[in-house]
Amino acid sequence: MNMNKQREELLKNLENQNRELNEYAHVVSHDLKAPLRNIDTLINWVLEENKDVMSESCLNLLNQVLFNVEKMDLLIKGILAYSTIDKLESEERLIDFNQIVDEITREIHIPKNIKISIIDDLPKIKGNTWRFKQLMQNLIENSIHYNDKTEGQIEIGCIENKNFFEFYIKDNGIGIAEKYHDKIFKIFTKLESNNQNSGVGLSIVKKIIEFYKGSIWLESKENSGTTFYFTLPKNYGTA
After folding, report:
1. Which member of 104, 193, 198, 213 lies 3.0 to 4.6 Å from 78 by CB, making a disulfide possible if both were Cys?
2. Distance of CA 189 to the CA centre of its chain
3. Hey, where are the domains in the chain?
4. How far is Cα 17 from Cα 70, in angstroms, rounded to an integer?
């Protein structure tokens, strides 16, 4: 009995700590956005008013500040998204993944050399629209971003199993070395340093899938493309 009570108290403490950490991340991230906007506005104002009299080195330094402000803004947006995944209280309903993918491909920038194809008809699953859209958009954008081919191919499909749906997103991009296969799902992990990647996207994907009691993994080799697989249980409702 004492062991059970200790286990219950430990789980309760862990839940409280996780909740407090998520709340802290949300508050801190929100409070950082205003000063970042001010920095961006001030630097752009200085550049606009003084670009003709500034030396090239000064201009480069100010542009470097703007570059890092943009990186920080992406990071904050990622932290906010990550901290709110399991806090949404909106009503869950049947979500058509064909419609989700169609909306994403109309809203995001897709280079002309990238072709996205839906290989199998995608299912309808009970869940939250925002979560499922974040899930698919992060995976699709990841496949676009890491594709270096003149004719980039991204295939999206789903296989129905007895108790779950198994989705896949396959690309012919640069691939991922095996030593990074587990690391890339950890928050703030990036395989390259640039202002277009916050290092949060795939951790958001993993958190959403685990929220729905699914799992995610990948198959990839360097220069041979990547296939992300993930499962979502049927017990959330299908049609």
Report:
1. 198
2. 12
3. 2-87, 93-236
4. 30
Locate 225 and state its tokens.
């493309």
pTM: 0.69
Cβ atoms of 168 and 227 within 8 Å: the answer is yes
pLDDT in tens, 50-73: 888 888 888 888 888 888 777 777
Greater pLDDT, 38 or 238: 38
**Structural fold of domain 93-236:** Heat Shock Protein 90 (3.30.565)
Q: How far apart are CA 173 and CA 224, in angstroms?
A: 7
Per the document, the length of the chain is 239
**In sequence order, what are the residues at sequence separation of 6 or more whose Cβ sits closer than 8 angstroms to the Cβ of residue 140?**
101, 104, 105, 108, 116, 154, 156, 169
CATH 1.10.287 fits 2-87, yes or no: yes
DSSP 60-105: HHHHHHHHHHHHHHHHHHHHHHHHHGGG--SPPEEEEHHHHHHHHH
